[in-house]
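input
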Amino acid sequence: MPLFMDYHIVSEISIDAVKQGHMTDRSVQDKYGVKYLQFYVNQEAGTIFCLIEAPDEESCKQVHQEAHGNIACNIVKVESGFYKLFMGESHQLDHGIVLGKDGDLDNAYRFVLAIDILGMTKAASSCDMKHLIIPDNPKQLIRQIISSYEGREVKNADYDGILCVFTQADEAMDCAIEIQKKLIKQVENPEDGSWNITFRMGIGGGQPVTKSDQLFKETIRLARRLSIIADDREIVVSNMVRKMTAIEEKPRSNSALKSIQLAEEEFLGQLFEITEKNLSNHAFNVEKLCRDIGISRSQLYRKVMAVTGRSPVAFIRDVRLDKALFLIKENKYNLSEIALEIGYNNPSYFSKCFRDKYGVKASSVDIRL
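output
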C-alpha cells in the first residue's frame, strides 16, 4: 500500500494531546483502509508529521476529518526507500511518537550536504572534456568520510555531485570540514597526478514536508544552491545549520567556512527562482532581474555581492553554465541545443563562456560520471 506523510502546524503543542489525536485516528482508520504508523513532533517549530499507509491521499484526509477535524497543511506521497534513507529505520516509539537515540523527541530535522566536485586541467583551453571527470580516489575518500559520520548518500539523477543526509547538524558540519581538510591536503600534496580537482560544498537543514510536493525537496534544493554560491574549496551553510551548530568554534582548514543569515537565505531563494525560471530566455539580464525582484540595479549589485560573492552578471552566468555542464554530461543534446536551453542564442559565444569558466572547450562527448 502507498506511503504518505502529512504535516500540521500547531501553535502550542501538547504531547498528551498529540498522543490522544493519534489514538483517535487509529480508532477510525480501518473504516478508510488507512494505517497511521508513527509521527514526529517538533515543539519548537510547532509542527507534527504523520507517516501513513493509505490507498490514496483523500483517505488520509478523511481519517483526520472524522477523528478530530485537524486537516493537514500538505500531504505528499513517499517512496519507502527514500523515507528510510532520510528518517532512518527501527525507530523507538512512545505511543506512536518517534524518539531519537537519546530518548528525546525526534524533531524531524534532517541536514543535507551537497558536494560539487570537478576535475581540472592545467592545459590552456583544452579540447578534452574528459578533464572534467571526477577521479575515483576523491569520490572514494568522500564516501568513506560520509560513512564515518553516519551520513547516508542520496542518489539524485538531477545532480552530478555527491548528496548525503545526516540526522544531526553537527554531523553534517564536521563531515564537511573533514572532507574539506582531506581534499585540500591531497590537492596540495598529491601522491600521484590524479588529484587535479576543485570542490565546493553547501549544507542545508529542514523538515520533511513543507508546501512542496516531495519529501525534503526544499532542503535538498537549498543545499545545492549553497554549493553553487560557494567559492572553490569553501563550505557555505544555511541559517538553520548556523543556529544549530557552534560554527564559530569549528576547527578551520586553510579554506573558508561561512554561513548566511535568514534574510540572505530568503533573498537567495528569490534570486535562484527568478534566474532558473528565465534560464532559457536569452533576453534575461540584470535589468529584468531588477524588475522582477523590485529593487534598483545598485541595490541588486550590493545584495547579490553580499550573499554570493559575485556580481549579478556573474551569478546569472554561473547558474547557466552549471546547467550547461550537467546537460553536456547527460550526453542527450548537441551543443547548439544546450546553448539555447540555457539562454545563449550564439553557440560560439556559449563555447567561449564555457571555456572561460571551466578551462575546457565544450564538446559533445560522453563524460557522464
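quick obs: The chain is about 45% helix and 20% strand.
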